[in-house]
Amino acid sequence: MSRDKVVADAADAVADVGRGASLAVGGFGLCGIPGVLIHALLERGAGELRVVSNNCGVDYWGLGLLLRAGLIARMTSSYVGENKEFARQYLQGELEVELVPQGTLAERLRAGGSGIPAFYTPAGAGTVIAEGGLAWRHGADGSPAVASPPRETRVFGGREHLLEEGITTDFALVRAAVGDRHGNLRFDSSARNFNPLAAMAGRITVAEVEELVEPGELGPDDVHLPGIFVQRVVPIGADDPHAEKRIERLTVRTAPAVHEGTG
């Protein structure tokens, strides 16, 4: 295998993502999402995708585009509150959803990528997560058609813990600020979020990079994810409309009123 992992374009990079594939997708809200690769999947049209990502984008951007097109069959996420179409599909039984505490989701991805099949965590102990019965998919009458199973528990240090399984997926899609031809990646600030963890979990990891450099240009301390976890690198242009960095919820401070006679 060539050590040069750069592929021609995003379409080539996802050409073998087939119907029913599982995907780990980086990003947090709209920060650090692999928008170019997501759009390439939208154009490819492979359906019944099983996606693991912190959230599912918003109604008209990010993973929300795949959801609206009916290409996602199952989501494993920790937060889904910014997407009305997500709520509609879930409540009407069109989408299967596994909700996972955020820290647990991060560790499940890291564990899967590290070859750890399962681990114990106190998160969710004593709740319905431990008991099972959460509706992963609703039936036509609103009752759970597919429900979460009860979790195996064990006590450590006098505290109950749940057994959680590591996550591995067929593919992972991530976005990095800088990458070299060997797949070493550097992420920008908060865009680091779930990207390294998602990349570790994928058997085939595709990284879209804003800047492509030659091997050796990234210093060892600048590598946030080593190339051993990355199989394909896609350079993207700043002028690509699908690479746009949108704000999920814009909040600005209102300037205080200036009263007459004050400076």
From TrEMBL:
Gene3D superfamilies xrefs: Glutaconate Coenzyme A-transferase
Pfam families: CoA_trans
GO MF annotations in UniProt: transferase activity
Keyword annotations of the record: Transferase
Source taxon at top rank: Bacteria
Entry-linked InterPro entries: 3-oxoacid_CoA-transf_A (IPR012792), CoA_trans_fam_I (IPR004165), NagB/RpiA_transferase-like (IPR037171)
PANTHER family noted in UniProt: ACETATE COA-TRANSFERASE SUBUNIT ALPHA, KETOACID-COENZYME A TRANSFERASE
Protein name: CoA transferase subunit A
Originating organism: Streptomyces filamentosus (Streptomyces roseosporus)
